[in-house]
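BACKBONE STRUCTURE TOKENS:
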Amino acid sequence: MTMNFEEVKGILKHRLPFLIVDRVLQIEPGTRIKTLKNVTGSEIQCLGHFPERAIMLGVLIVEEIGQSASILLSYADKKGTAKGE
């Protein structure tokens, strides 16, 4: 199972710029999830974080892990979330 950005937005309550997960590449309900965040050096959070060698902030990596876990948990019963939940 995969999800595009619009489907991810339908599950998570976060909105830009705090919606970190861009896509779900693979999900095995109740077991594991593989997500993607596209990072470019021109993103606002990267501009002042080592300007000569922009990197993703560790706290945002942890946030993506949390958002990924939320998606995975929403599929723990293999049904996903109900609309508006």
Notes: The chain is about 35% helix and 15% strand. The beta strands are 23-28, 32-36. Residues 61 and 82 are 27 Å apart (CA to CA). The chain has a mean pLDDT of 86.
